[in-house]
Amino acid sequence: MKHGHVVANGIDISYVEEGEGPLALLLHGFPESGESTYRHLIPALAEAGYRAVAPNIRGFAPSALPADGSMRLADLVADANALHEELGGDGNAVLVGHDWGAATAWGAAHTEPERWSRVVVSDVPPLAFFGEYASTYEGIERLNHFWFFQMAMADEVLAANDMAWVRQVMQDKWTADDYDATEDFEAARKALGEPARLRAAIDLYRMNFAPQEMGTPEWAARHAELWGEVPAQPTLYLHGTEDKSVVLDAEGLAAIGASLSAGSEAAFVEGAGHIVPAEKPVEYNERVLRFLGAKR
């Protein structure tokens, strides 16, 4: 894989890439890195004839910290669409997202649909479903890091003992019981080991789910404008059966699938937790390549 960087939406974004062909932009989530999350998909896409590019989102080393400190979803969405432009993407480009990258992909594909031919999302469903789940008893309990990160003490807790809290939550909560999350954690530590970068990552939650704003009409309108509607493009949605953060049953997955545009699919990945691309790469890659191959 080659390393590169480009200024997109005013941010110096670093990335890894492999292959030649239509752009496939791969967006990661918290607290990982693009290279780690998609370490199995990048070579598979390259072999299939894509230019697979996995950036580290703003604030995650070695990408730059935003000068204005903003980690709002609107800026992540603008970053993704700007990366399409700066990397020479065209109408055949595809967009792949996991976790925060999933929310970003929902928004980028909706707000500038002419840039993306197909969309692949895992682990965070469309806003209509995620928002409803996040306000239930189960959702509040399972997404408790959303609320913990609002506390000032979170900065110190996450940084303590070489990011031991992050290591433990990745292993015990965010991945399946039989998965070794060591490689994912090491990538997270590399990306967020500096205090300013760890703070930026926590600000994803503080700025997008601020307690003074969350649930207000203004907050709802802002999120609805970004990812309140599913993309018009064919979309593949994948979700781990062992996801302990966002728990879906068969009925919920079917409802998500029914809400997507024509040509879309929604499926479980058996035995995967919340980091589907890394945890079950064989099945994940097979489903992604089959879905993209239907276009090409």
TrEMBL record:
Residues 25-279 form the AB hydrolase-1 domain. Keywords: Hydrolase. GO terms for molecular function: hydrolase activity. It comes from the Bacteria. InterPro entries: AB_hydrolase_1, AB_hydrolase_fold, Epox_hydrolase-like. This is Alpha/beta hydrolase. The lineage of its organism: Bacteria, Bacillati, Actinomycetota, Actinomycetes, Kitasatosporales.
